[in-house]
Amino acid sequence: MVVLVGLNTDLSRIKAWWRTLGGDGFAVLPPPTRGRYTQSDGHADAAEMFAARGIATDTSFAYWHWQSHDAFDRSGDLRGVLYLHWGGDHATVAAGLGDGPPGYRIVNGGPRGAFRLDRVTATDADGLPDPEDTAGVRQFLARLDAPRSRTTRSAEYDPLTAAEERWLHNRLSGPVDLDAAVLFAAPLEHRQALTPDETARLLSAWRETYAGRLAAWRGRRPLLLALLRQEHPEAWEVAAELGPDAAYALAAHPSPRSLELLRTWALTGDDGAVRGWFRAHHALREPDPVRAAAALSEELTAHTAPETAQTGLLNALREAVTDGHRTPDGFFPLLLATVRFATDDRLPRPLRVAAAKAATDTAGRVREAAGRLPEAAETAEALAAVERYEAARDDLLAGTGPDLAGHEGGLGDIYHRYRTLTPSDIQWLRDRLADPATGVQGIAFCLEVLYAHGEATETDLQALLPRWKKELTKQYRTTYTEWRHPLVTLTCLAQDLGHPAAEALLAWWAKPKPLWKGPVRLLTHLGAPDEAKAAELWEFVVSGGHDTGHLMTWVLLRARLDGVHPLHVAEKLIGEPGVRAYVLERVLIGVADPAQPLWHYAIDPRSHGWWHRAQEVADDRRLSDAARAIGMKAAREHYVTRHPDQVRPALTEGEVNAAHAWLEARADRTVAD
Description:
Structural class: mainly alpha
Helix content: 40-55%
Distance between the termini: 51 Å
Strand order of the largest sheet: 1-2-3-5-4
Number of helices: 33
Radius of gyration: 28 Å
Strand content: under 5%
Shape: globular
């Protein structure tokens, strides 16, 4: 997004105020460029700025990143809330930001959230904004769209006042503007208040404007709900054209016809369709949720639906048996249901396997929460469920693995589980590499794990060679993951094996295009390392170029050449001219286990893996005091004690308490015991 900023825009006024901030242990980062895209980028930029300006490392700071910057339109006007992120002490940041610039306000999101900056707007006696005040309208609609309560399957909204409903209907009374209409139609249909006339007019405009691509309009969901609720004759034609995207609405209005459509889509593995199919089947055919899920699980298996469909079905089952249940421990009913379903003989094995996978990081939390139940019988039953699960877990999980096509953050969350590999893990990873259906992300994950552990073979290389030119030469951003681009890893493997394909792979890397490969080409030097490769890498490291794994590659390469642990290579670079300290710090932690280096370009404070590596570096008596101090610094800044609810997978109370105890035992330690 290119922002063309005038002298009297929201962006210019906010920037002018931003430049006045700072002092008393508080600093602000300059407004972002595209290089600061995430919160991790913000923390890395802060470390770099502190080092460059000689600012104390414990200074609290605030910033916004490029995703937040989308709050501004091309002219620099604020079109949404500007989220201000931060690091350090929350109270210091709140005091440093204050109330915001004149004409704006800052809402404090609390110690676990961002600060929210928005315009100050006015409303009339009925609490309604001027229709021409875009910021006021946006804030008003955001209030109406906030549910009063929410369960796993539905949301309840406050009723509209007569003035609010009239205001919304008035916005839909003129010529139809579909982009604007969705803003007013959604809060009405949340209360089932869209009229048949409004529905018909919106449908006509939708079908005309988005002919052949109905799913492209973002107002499709509330309008389809209205069509089904009003039994409009075109509802089914619209639903069929939308495909699985219509699953939510069809599940909310179950009928034999919706059930059949949902079944068709569910057998393809679509998650929303699987959930909708279960809800409709449960409502129409089988009131017992376990029996309903069992029947659908068997049908999914009979039609060889994707494995992920069983996970979607499990989620739907868990929602059905816990919907509306609330306890002091929040998600305890959902967690306990997951543990129970793993050993419920009424369910087919594929569904029990899905439950066992989902419960991998759940049993400990259930065990802790069970001790707080009010009735001894409830506690005993919950603990018995955990024991049954733990007895069956290894058998259920043998030969299984994560969803390789899902969000890559989910793979990063469980990366620490692959620090050691069982024979069944190795076989599963190899099978995925040999499967033509495994995508680039899955290949990157599996190949990295096998290669790092020394388990990648020529068979794995041969399985991927037919795919490398057409599939693996595509851009795949890996700076926010624990694994490298799969073609980097494949090239390293080919070189290590001395395979003839290495020559062709290296020739491709040597070409100037595509441009995406330029920043990561040198990472291939880890394969079959030699002194020339080490020298070229080092030249880049000290050049000041953007590091996307280069220093880590050099450390691992040097360790292989010298036959030493990479930690000892990294610690010698402390204070080395040309080596940026904040990059070296995450490299030192990342190479703590050379059998599974962590390639994320910054220390991830939400990761189990980074926490354990920081502890190991801090306690490694073979290392220098300066190196161990880096481990202590990373451990103190990790969210395991500061924001434990943000660590994924979720921690048990015992794990949090153990982390606090570990840090407290070393409270007086800086660079030495």
